[in-house]
Structure prediction request, 148 residues.
Amino acid sequence: MCGLTGSDMTICVAFSSSPEGVAALALAVRESRLRRAPLVALATAKQERFDDDHDHEGDEHALHREIERRLAELRLDDDPETQVRVIDDGGDAAEAIIDLAASVDAELLVLGVKRRSPMGKLLTGSTAQRIILDSPIPVLVAHAARPA
Prediction:
């Protein structure tokens, strides 16, 4: 177990600032609350950088603060413990997310995915697709709300 609480289950959520990532975070908080399970929110720092003078460490801190802010809006006082981790994905976000979920003995991984056309699903691979196919633990998928 990852040492968060005495729960038998840890839930991980792969966060991004996209509407799908925000939906995944909200779903993971609800699952954590329902199951009384600790939550680990993870985000990968983008490996491809085009501006060498850019403050990459500042990006990671900003991402960490964004997740913390969003969690503060979603969580209740008596919710299970939550950890936030921003990791360098080493160029392979799917592998980094799966490895981190395994390192905390997660039993559920929550992931936001974009809606795609059948042709889009056929022609393009994605990080989400790799996670869903390669994850050794169940993956719960969240979609962003459709525009009204």
